[in-house]
Amino acid sequence: MSAYTLVLQAPALSNTDVAALAELSGASGVESRSANVARLANADPARRDAVAAHCDAAGVDAAFVPAGKRLSDYGLIVSDMDSTLITIECIDEIADMQGLKDQVAAITERSMQGELDFVASLIERVALLEGLPEEALGRVYAERLQLTPGATELLAACKANDVRFMLVSGGFTFFTEKLKAELGLDYAHANTLEVENGRLTGRVLGDIVDAAAKARLLRETRDALGLKPEQVIAIGDGANDLLMLAEAGLGVAYKAKPVVRKQADVAINHGGLDAVLGLFA
């Protein structure tokens, strides 16, 4: 039976919470401790629900990870873009340029919760953008797009440990390609908005990057790199990411919808993306 470490992370991790969670998890002791991270040795994953209940109330992120795992044990991280690597939903901000943010954002939310078919909902939302000048996309990138806290640290650690980083998004290539160039990402995949005479037509070109496509792109890239499934980390927040997370050796739900948190291996609800680094020794 594999040994597990319970990793606790919070902006200010109290000794009271560490002690309580050590008892709840059946851990044999504190392996290491800093101001915002504690590693509890030989924790029992069967006690996950009790640990999660305490952590939800205390504002602590908890993850059961195989003992001794390091970031360098992985070769590929696959991440969603909107509300994961970046703080916004690009399509909602584009729609705001049309005065339709509330309408589009409501559809986006239902899609991410898994209540709507992703492909149908994307087609519906993109259709509402018809006639918008292409320059509006540049305004969203320049004025509204921000990296998620901790993203810079995560990407730097990937480069230092020779871990490839792939952005795979149900959003748009206008944004993924700019991020790929700016951040030095290894791969990026997304949907292409059709533009005619400088304006959006309200259509998407080619096949849509949906949940199945995200999982397929993960597998294809993993296999091309000669990696095993357990050498891949996937990070996402919406129902469209579930198949991708299931394909990875470690599926991380980042500030995700309940349906995603429930099915992921690890849920980060309070920290930044650098909390992924805290999972490893």
Notes on the protein architecture:
Helix content is 41%, strand content 23%. The protein is of the alpha/beta class and 281 residues long. The chain folds into two domains: 68 residues, ACT domain (Alpha-Beta Plaits, 2-Layer Sandwich), CATH 3.30.70.260; 211 residues, HAD superfamily/HAD-like (Rossmann fold). The strands form two sheets. It has a seven-stranded mixed beta sheet, with helices on both faces. Strands 2-3-1-4 form a four-stranded antiparallel beta sheet, with helices on one face. The radius of gyration is 20 Å and the shape is elongated. 44% of the residues are buried. The model has no long low-confidence stretch (mean pLDDT 96).
Topology summary:
Layout: E1 4-9, H1 15-25, E2 29-33, E3 37-41, H2 48-58, E4 61-66, E5 76-79, H3 81-85, H4 90-96, H5 101-112, H6 118-127, H7 135-143, H8 151-160, E6 164-172, H9 173-183, E7 187-196, E8 199-205, H10 211-224, E9 232-236, H11 242-247, E10 250-254, H12 258-263, E11 266-268, H13 275-278
Parallel strand pairs: 5-6, 5-9, 6-7, 9-10, 10-11
Antiparallel strand pairs: 1-3, 1-4, 2-3, 7-8
Helix pairs in contact: 1-2, 4-5, 5-6
